[in-house]
Design a protein that fits this description.
The protein has 167 residues and is mainly beta. The protein contains 2 helices and 13 strands. The strands form 3 sheets. A 5-stranded antiparallel sheet has the order 1-2-3-4-5, with helices on one face. Strands 8, 9, 11, 12 and 13 form a 5-stranded antiparallel sheet that branches. The longest helix has 17 residues. The radius of gyration is 15 Å and the shape is globular. It starts with a strand and ends with a strand.
């Protein structure tokens, strides 16, 4: 099964695994259909080629935009106290955090955090993580005046959406 994703490549079901690719060297989201969530579950595998900070930020923004378009269930699995995005705002600076483990042994970790415009859904800031990053994961960004929604993606428990906030 192949599903085109508006300029982001395509989503394919192969051998019970969902694969999403934009370009051969960018990223691939792979997962299986979770029996409890009824949706896409998985992990994001990054390219082995070395990439600079700007390219990594672009990859993170593209990956989270694809996650948002994939129609995954929100806040569907896992404990809310460990997954629900929390935001602290100070002036134009917003910090998103969750008290979640970053466990390389399981593996169980937050792969992405991002801020999206509450009206348009446009991703304004995104950060990718690996299981060996320190816990708790956090994203701090300077945002223009507006209303935003915080999100995070856990490799085991999917996409979690927090409450809208204003800067």
């Amino acid at each position: 099964v192949l599903l085109p994703l508006l300029g982001l490549g395509c989503l394919a079901l192969r051998g019970g695994q969902w694969l999403l690719s934009s370009t051969p060297d960018a990223f691939a989201v792979a997962g299986s259909l979770g029996p409890r969530a009824g949706g896409l579950r998985g992990e994001v595998r990054r390219a082995a080629s070395p990439r600079g900070p700007a390219e990594i930020q672009q990859d993170a923004a593209a990956a989270v935009a694809a996650l948002m378009r994939a129609g995954l269930p929100l806040n569907a699995e896992g404990a809310a106290e460990k997954h629900l995005p929390q935001v602290a705002v100070q002036g134009a600076s917003a910090t998103l955090s969750v008290p979640h483990v970053m466990d390389a042994g399981a593996p169980h970790f937050i792969e992405y955090m991002w801020f999206a415009d509450a009206n348009t859904g446009q991703v304004l800031a995104a950060k990718s993580f690996v299981a060996t990053d320190p816990s708790p994961p956090a994203l701090t960004a300077t945002l223009p005046s507006g209303t935003y929604v915080p999100y995070e993606f856990c490799n085991l428990h999917g996409v979690w959406k927090g409450e809208p906030f204003t800067v």
